[in-house]
Amino acid sequence: MTAENESAIVKRLREIGERVWQTPEPVVAFTGRADADALVNDLKDHPHAYVVGCIADRQMKYQKAWMLPYLLSQRVGGFEFTRLQSLTEQELLRAIDTVPKLHRFPRPMAKFIRSGIHRIADQYNGDASRIWTGQPSSSDVVARFLEFDGVGPKIAHMAANILVRSFKVQLSDYWSIDVSADVHVRRVFGRLGLCRVGASVDEVVAKGRSLSREFPGLLDYSAFEIGNLWCRNADPLCGECRMSDICPSSGSGSM
User: Fold this and answer.
1) What are the counts of helices (DSSP H) followed by strands (DSSP E) for the chain?
2) What distance lies between CA 170 and its chain's CA centroid?
3) Is the pLDDT of residue 254 over 70?
4) Cα–Cα distances in Å, from 116 out to 21, 126, 140?
């Protein structure tokens, strides 16, 4: 791929990301269910619901993972912070493990959620919004999410990115927020020729940093959307994809 071709692809990815970043979102649609989305969107009164959703978003479809806070609230009698703080790990496990199970891995999830609630209580005086309010640096926000048990780099960067991109939380900088290189993002980066096909997570993250230095995660939404909607692993819908005219892997691509 020539530098000119790469520049055109990156420019379009950035334009998509910037348009989402600058457009107000009344409700961020995590699940597609209004009552469940309302809870994890409530950063004012239930910011811990967003953190629990981030912790749960692993090894299963994201829509189901983000349903966990709402369904858990129904099983334990609400999602007020003090209510969650009073629950033992065994009580959380019973709530999560009851059929239909709320997560693929109930036991570690119960442990992670209980640990997370107590971290919010101890480190943030029971107010999870203190993780991101006051315009901290992006590196601080990512580091704070990484301190939660069960949260790795992919989830930590995703959590910071959603706060900035969708909830319009202002930070002092954005350069530490990387792309969350899940299967969709890795596949799209490979097919667009930004990385070799089958590139590792580390390669994709490093490439994102080189392509969008001030805000690497700006490329994340556009790549995820393309991979989720059109650039499927099998039978990709190239004709419907917004990148088809410049994608080197598309039959209609001109580059």
Assistant:
1) 13, 0
2) 17
3) no
4) 28, 11, 17
CATH number of 204's domain: 1.10.1670.10
CB neighbours of 2 closer than 8 A, spacing ≥ 6? Answer: none
Residue 125: Cβ-neighbour burial (10 angstroms; 0-12, 13-18, 19+): exposed
| Rounded Cα–Cα distance for residues 230 and 236 (Å) | 6
pTM above 0.85, yes or no: yes
Nearest to 56 by CA among 98, 86, 96, 99: 96
pLDDT at res. 251: 64
* pLDDT tens per residue, range 14-34: 999 999 899 888 899 999 999
The dihedral sign for the CA sequence 46, 51, 57, 58: negative
Please report whether residue 215 resides in a domain: yes
Selection from 166, 172, 158 nearest residue 216 by Cα: 158
Counted residue by residue, the chain has a size of: 255
Which residues does 102 contact at the CB level (< 8 Å), separation at least 6?
Answer: 67, 68, 71, 72, 75, 95, 96, 109
64 with 15, same domain: the answer is: no
Q: Return the biggest CA–CA distance within the chain.
A: 60
Strand, coil or helix: 250? coil
The pair of structure tokens assigned to 242 is: 């917004």
Domain finish residue from 99, 116, 131:
131
